[in-house]
């Protein structure tokens, strides 16, 4: 079965996420910017980078490598066009984080915003562990259930509704337990809201020791 992300135009995705009633493009970029400011990573990887939302928040004097990974080759190409000249240390990869080996050098920070709703958490956590340097940090954003609105917010961009059958909300408590099983510990967590309709849990995980996660 073809992954529905491959059939969603980037313009539809970005326009949907930027709608005032959705507000998730700004939220994801803000959380990314906060992580950059908090950890000052020399190298960061963004899983599910789309067209590079948030890349404009990178300070190249601090963060010298930015790795972007996305399943959709059109998204990655747009990220390259937008940021290839602005970020000297930009590395972009097309592939499935659940299955493909990207082979990039380990990073200090991995950012996974609204990724775990569409992947097998255990598989991806094991792969993220191998992407991080010793003592590195994983920052995640997961969507919390809403009693008043669908998981995919209705909008004029109907192509996004193709995601509904494959989207599965991941309880933050479950993500925390699975992360611990893969050699991480939760450092902090907070709840943020994009609109009055939807809230999201931001969690940060670090390796349990100064040595690589087992």
Structural description of this entry:
Helices cover 27% and strands 25% of the residues. It is an alpha/beta fold and 214 residues long. It has one domain (4-207): 3-Layer(aba) Sandwich (Rossmann fold). The protein has a seven-stranded mixed sheet with strand order 3-2-1-4-5-7-6, with helices on both faces. The N and C termini lie far apart (33 Å).
Number of strands: 7
Taking Cα atoms only, what radius of gyration do you get, to the nearest Å? 16 Å
How far is the first residue's CA from the last residue's CA?
33 Å
- Second rung of CATH, namely the architecture: 3-Layer(aba) Sandwich
pLDDT < 50 runs, ≥5 residues: none
In a nutshell, what does this entry contain?
With 214 residues, the protein is α/β, with parallel strands linked by helices. It contains five helices and seven strands, in the order ααββαββαβαββ. It has a single domain (4-207), classed as Vaccinia Virus protein VP39 (Rossmann fold, 3-Layer(aba) Sandwich), CATH 3.40.50.150.
